[in-house]
Every structure is written in structure tokens, then in C-alpha cells.
Amino acid sequence: MPRILLGTICGLVFGTIVVLTMLPMEFPDKAAALIGAFVSRFGIGFVIGSAKLPIPGWAAGLLFGLLLSLPDAVITKAYFPIIVLGLIGGLIIGFVVDRWGI
Predict the structure, then answer these.
(1) What is the pLDDT of residue 58?
(2) What single string gives the DSSP state of each residue in 13-26?
(3) Buried b vs exposed e over 56-81: b needs ≥16 C-beta within 10 Å?
(4) How far apart are CA 30 and CA 8, in angstroms?
(5) Average of per-residue pLDDT across 60-79
(6) How far is CA 92 from CA 3, 4, 33, 95, in A?
(7) 57, 99 contact by CB (below 8 A)
(8) What confidence score (pLDDT) does residue 25 get?
(9) How many CB atoms lie within 10 A of CB 36?
(10) CA 16, 22, 26, 31: dihedral to nearest 10 degrees?
(11) What is the pTM of this model?
(12) Percentage of the chain exceeding pLDDT 70
């Protein structure tokens, strides 16, 4: 499967999982929080699928997961859950795209 398509699918799945885990939580503007989380996590998958760095896929996933999670973490001051989820998702997506993407 083409890397960009696989990354896009992984990003859709990752974004959906994160939104589902956030549904029971309370936010001042819940719709904005859910949409923002989805777009951020989708972006991780899309960027990993689009980029080809001269490092292993899992490492690229960690790098992009961290870099794309940092702005949300700084804005919300919820560093640990946002960064850890970004790292885990990036690691998995990076591995998947590197292993099965063409």
C-alpha cells in the first residue's frame, strides 16, 4: 500500500481512538477539544506517511509524534498524556508505515 495512503489510514484510526477515549471527559468547549485532538493525531499519521527520513520508521514516528504533540501539550499544560500518546501513536504508525508501506 502506498505510504501516504497507509499513513492517512493510520492517522484516521489514531485520531478516532483518541477522540473515543476523550468522550467521557469534560471540557469548556468539548467539540473544539475533540476536533483539535482528532486533527492533531490524524496529522501525525499523515506526516509519517508523507515523509521519508534516513532513519528507521519507528524513530521517525517517535520524532513526528513528539514534534506534533508539543504544541497541544504546551497550550493545554497536559504534557504527560498528550506527549506520551503522541509518542506511542507515532512509534506504532512509524513502524507500520515503514514495514508495510511502499
Answers:
(1) 97
(2) HHHHHHHHHHTTS-
(3) ebbebbbbbbeebbeebbeeeeeeee
(4) 24
(5) 96
(6) 14, 15, 24, 5
(7) yes
(8) 94
(9) 15
(10) -10
(11) 0.94
(12) 100
